[in-house]
Specification:
By secondary structure, the protein is of the alpha+beta class. The protein has ten helices and 17 strands. It binds adenosine-5'-diphosphate and magnesium ion.
Length: 349
């Protein structure tokens, strides 16, 4: 078993923390190999079983099923290890977005979590929202801007109201996101978001409670109890997510009436299916205070996995302790791999 962590993304450090918890919990039942992807994109196989931010030997994995997913030394292609399954504990770009999943598919190695198309579509908020809309799920009103149509921004406050949320389309952990309360600040927020991506999304800001549901499974996914995030500031920004001084509170289970909890769980499974997800995902909702409506905000195909992260905590509260959760994810990876291996890849009429 190889735990892949780090990555070429703004969420590199978050991944380090998730991977530390994952590796530790897998140790009793697996030979754990730790492979760190640097911020420069290079892969390093570490000595020992602790995901560390330093050291390691540069390695690669060949995109060919003949090689069976061996980890080979970059310098001379010597075989160093051969993981039977890979757990990409990677968040954000070049990790959660289908790129690493594509390599693992080519290599023919089983891996935990969503496949290529689902990872890519879930990371791209424009595609994700289109798939949710197609499945009939309620969401906030929004507009997507590309650099060229940045001039179209002038009418957004009139169309979507204020405040607005401006986000890069392909990022996570609230990186690049700004809340805009005055129309005159919109241009700067859009420019800021364009630093991180070629597409920017502008959304109607809702006054809402933030509820999250964990989903686990392949073709027959199950939903956890809902949990609530109570940010300690105006919105759930990067610091409120990860700063040790953050007073952001997790309420598990979320204090909501049972019918609403059922609706949230059903909708979470519908969102998981809408993007054709596999393995795990955390589905995040807005519960609009004025209307009481449930709006889907987003799906995360590789949610935070530290022992204090929402995803594992929701499962623990739903009767699936952390080690069992990881064991199930590994089983689901093998199950999905076996299913794909059974499919015919050639066709002769
Ligand atoms: N349309 C919105 N209305 C109100 N708050 C929002 C809206 N969009 C984002 N937020 C706030 O910003 C946070 C991060 O936004 P989100 O879309 O979840 O980005 P990320 O993918 O980076 O987590 C949310 O958890 C919420 O607190
Ligand atoms: Mg979010």
């Amino acid at each position: 078993m190889a735990v892949l962590f780090g990555g070429r993304s703004g969420e590199h450090e978050v991944s380090l923390r998730s991977a530390a918890s994952v590796a530790e919990a897998l140790l009793p039942n697996h030979d754990v190999l730790c492979v760190r992807i640097g911020k420069d994109g290079g892969w390093r196989l570490l000595e020992g079983t602790r995901p560390s931010p330093h050291g390691g030997v540069p390695v690669f994995l060949a995109p060919s099923p003949d090689d069976g997913g061996r980890l080979r030394r970059l310098a001379d292609a010597a075989e160093l290890a051969r993981p039977d399954v890979v757990f990409p504990v990677l968040h954000g770009t070049y990790g959660e977005d289908g790129t690493v999943q594509g390599l693992l598919e080519l290599a023919g190695v089983p891996y935990v979590g969503a496949g290529v198309a689902s990872s890519a579509a879930s990371m791209d908020k424009e595609m994700m929202k289109a798939l949710f809309a197609r499945a009939g799920l309620a969401q906030v009103e929004y507009a997507v801007l590309r650099r060229r149509d940045a001039t179209a921004e002038a009418d957004l406050p009139a169309r979507l109201g204020l405040p607005l949320f401006v986000k890069p389309v392909n990022l996570g952990s609230s990186v690049g996101i700004r809340k805009v309360k005055r129309a005159e600040d919109l241009g700067a927020a859009i420019e800021f978001a364009f630093r991180f991506d070629r597409k920017v999304i502008v959304e109607r800001g809702v006054e809402a409670r933030e509820i999250e549901v964990a989903v686990l499974g392949n073709d027959d996914p199950e939903a956890s109890v809902p949990g609530e995030i109570v940010p300690d500031r105006e919105f759930y920004d990067y610091d409120s997510k990860y700063d040790a001084a953050s007073r952001t509170e997790l309420r598990i289970p979320a204090p909501v009436p049972p019918e609403l909890a059922d609706e949230l769980r059903r909708t979470a499974v519908a969102a998981f299916r809408a993007v054709d997800c596999a393995g795990c995902a955390r589905v995040d909702f807005f519960l609009e205070r004025t209307s009481g409506r449930v709006l889907v905000n987003e799906i995360n195909t590789m949610p935070g996995f530290t022992s204090i992260s929402m995803y594992p905590k929701l499962w623990a509260a739903s009767g699936v302790p952390y080690p069992e959760l990881l064991a199930r994810l590994v089983d689901l990876a093998f199950e999905r791999h076996a299913e794909r291996a059974r499919l015919q890849t050639d066709y002769r009429p």
